[in-house]
């Protein structure tokens, strides 16, 4: 698990498969927020929107966004709304790290190279050299980008 704080949100990269449909989501995310609070010394209380982007190969990326409701600041509690979104992530990779052996589908958009990955072995070979693209950015790249064969 890797954590990044950016643009008023916490992003948790969870590179393992979790079957969110078979677990108690409230309990799982309550425990996750406590772990983040204790390990990274981040103040967490109030109301949060949690969006879980789920990819069948990578695992999940969890975006935690605090909503601005003033009255929650007086209590040491956390409430949350949880949204699950299944999608196939794209991986932005520099040309120097591109490997034709792992290429399933390649897209060029805004002079950048994006890959669709269909197996864990291929993902593991590029994960440290790429940027994971998820959420609304995927739609923009797929709609405006150009599929190419290299």
Description:
The chain has two domains: 2-86, no CATH class; 90-148, no CATH class. The mean pLDDT is 88. The protein is 21% helix and 40% strand. The protein is elongated, with a radius of gyration of 17 Å. The protein is of the alpha+beta class and 150 residues long. It has a five-stranded mixed sheet, with helices on one face. The chain has helices spanning 25-40, 120-126, 136-144; strands at residues 2-6, 9-14, 46-55, 59-67, 78-86, 90-93, 105-109, 112-116, 130-133, 146-148.
Give short descriptive properties of this protein.
21% helix; five-stranded antiparallel β-sheet; alpha+beta
What's the layout of helices and strands?
Elements: E1 2-6, E2 9-14, H1 25-40, E3 46-55, E4 59-67, E5 78-86, E6 90-93, E7 105-109, E8 112-116, H2 120-126, E9 130-133, H3 136-144, E10 146-148
Parallel strand pairs: 3-5
Antiparallel strand pairs: 1-2, 2-4, 3-4, 6-8, 6-9, 7-8, 7-10
